[in-house]
Amino acid sequence: MKKSVLYFLLLLFTQMCFAQSNLLWQGYFSYNEIKDLSESTSAVFAASENALFSKNIATSQIKTTNTVDGLSGETISALYYSATFNKTIVGYENGLIIVINEADGSMLNVVDIINKQLPSNIKKINHFMEFEGVAYVSCDFGIVQFNLATMQFGDTYFIGTNGAEIMVNQTTLFNGFVYAATNSGIKRADISNKNLVDFSQWETIAAGNWSGVATLGTDLFAVNAAGYIHKYDADANLFMGYLALSSPALDMRATTGYLLVTTLNSIYIYNSQMAMVRQISTNQITERTPSFNCATIIGDAIFIGTTENGLITTSLSSATTFENTTPIGPSRNNIFALEATTSSLWTVYGDYSADYNPYPLDSYGISKFSATGWLNIPYEEVLGAQSMTRITVNPSNENEVYASSFFSGLLKIEDDTPTILYNQTNSGLESLTFVGPNYIDIRVNGTAFDKSGNLWVTTSRIKNGLKVFKSNGQWQSYAMDAILDSAIDNNFGTIAIDKNGTKWLSTSEDGVIGFNESNNVFKKITTGPDTGNLPVSNVNVVAVDSRNQLWIGTTKGLRVLRNVGSFQTEDQMTTDPIIILDDNLAQELLYEQFITDIVVDGANNKWIGTADSGLFLVSPNGQETKYHFTINNSPLPSNVINDIDINSATGEVFIATAKGLVSFKGTATAPNDDLSNAFVYPNPVRPEYQGTVKIAGLLDKAHIKITDIEGNLVHETISEGGTIEWDTTAFGKHKVASGVYMIFISAQDGVETKVKKVMIIR
What we know:
The chain is mainly beta. 3% of the residues lie in helices and 46% in strands. It is built from two helices and 64 strands. The strands form 17 sheets. Strands 1-57-56-55 form a four-stranded antiparallel β-sheet, with no helix packed on it. Strands 2-3-4-5 form a four-stranded antiparallel β-sheet, with no helix packed on it. A hairpin with a 2-residue loop joins β36 and β37. It is globular.
């Protein structure tokens, strides 16, 4: 009992902290992959991969809901809006149900199906059907009752042969019976029967694999897996073949007066007499040819859910007008790499496997987020560049951007328009040759600009793996076959350039390679106590911090080169693990973790992404773990972290995961050169505000004192980076009273000072 109480308190505390911390999080989700639709008389509700949105028909107002609001990052498989209870029910492939109270936005996570002693691969939720306050939940194992008033589960019906699990795709109510479309026939039972847990109470009406069943007025229709619509004959108690579709049905549903059947390329709309009112084909939508997934009707408006193009709206009365009503976001949720500047964020979606295999090749575009919103550059406009895996902005000219293709070369983007695809025909780039001389495969990955404006480029699996695209437009190559054990087997990850101009290259086979063109010397850091002390030779990422240390992320843990200057003085550089104390036991920080990215913020903290354990923020020396974000304690939609970057002006940390992009609004901004742009926000601090006061635009190691109007000191600190936080307490003891507070800022040497004010209203 004591353990249960403690667990409840811990869970409550975690949920409260989660809710408060959401003030610091922002979601940037794609809503293009529509999984399901539902409707009320005044709004349409759409479920994308792991987020929701709704559109009010009268006002056209769109509301979005994602993991920052409390949704799970898991994949949504079913959606239902209950007008009776004003609740939206979200079903997931893993069996989770989330109930959203539309009146106040509160959410309830229901994990009963997840906790059932069943194989995890048969817990998917397929459909919701409401009757007398109970939702009948169709799952891959059977049917579950869920009471929408009490939020409690009722009976579970295993209706297969001898009570076996059976995939139920959809249910409907017809003439007092509940009908279930399953992969082993259409089953029915009396809805008033109190003993439906007994499988023998369920009668098989039709054999075979059925994908849907729906009631239209006084008729009952079902569609089988082949796309053959059947009509129920009550006198004969069987389903009669009615209409054969040209392809399998993905969705069938009845709305007021209409039956809608959706296939990959067509939507068929029938009235209550089963006369076709309209057929919509993908080739009618001229801007792009979408793939359909589901559709519904509200009044005269038809809403079409697609697999890649979001929600498309048309009408029964217009055969040619189509409008995309999807919330603006990135093209996809699975962002592989990103780069943030002070004014924009660029993302790419191509990828490769853990062993750097880009196949099957991806044909996706590029996305940019700025003050004007999202700009999505489709694949048709990127000059054929496939599997783009990195993106780099010229720090001297933010209108010049380069996207690395791990198959096609290097794409140049100017003023948001792709202009040149550099490949083997027009640049110093080379194709790998071991497949054969006629096969073109140019695997560009890590790129970085040096202080002179030259772009350094790595190309995997060739002899001249390192290249530089100089600011004067010339290319130069550097042979690496002498330093690499096998150049044609090696793949490159990221590049980091230190203050001395040394290039640090992460490799898949040879650890870290250092190179400086001033003396044309390559040096290697690899495994073994005498050759670099890396845990493995497969290095994903390298990052140079503000103390001139090289942080190295491998597939089996973390290492640090204590001084990048050792490249100049030592023939063999050696790295060290970071040893921390946990319960008074010494252990290695991030021992054997697959590290995907390392980013250094303005305060020299390290944001470290992992392949399956979420995101870590550690102190400058790694001895303190300040945050460990996972799907369980934060809005991260996935523990698979693909990439991280930071807006140095705002401190916003962008986190690309396998299931969506979120950001954490940190305070570690880059330090300013002077105090001329120092500012305080929010100001004034109003009673409803629950966050901290930020003082930004600071010098590094600036001294900050905060006093009340009478000169009494209430807070004092020294900045690390460009921003500090104040929790509006007097030295952490109690909240300060209403009033004006003076903020005195001085540089470390005392030469430059600044005074700001903030008003606090309790």
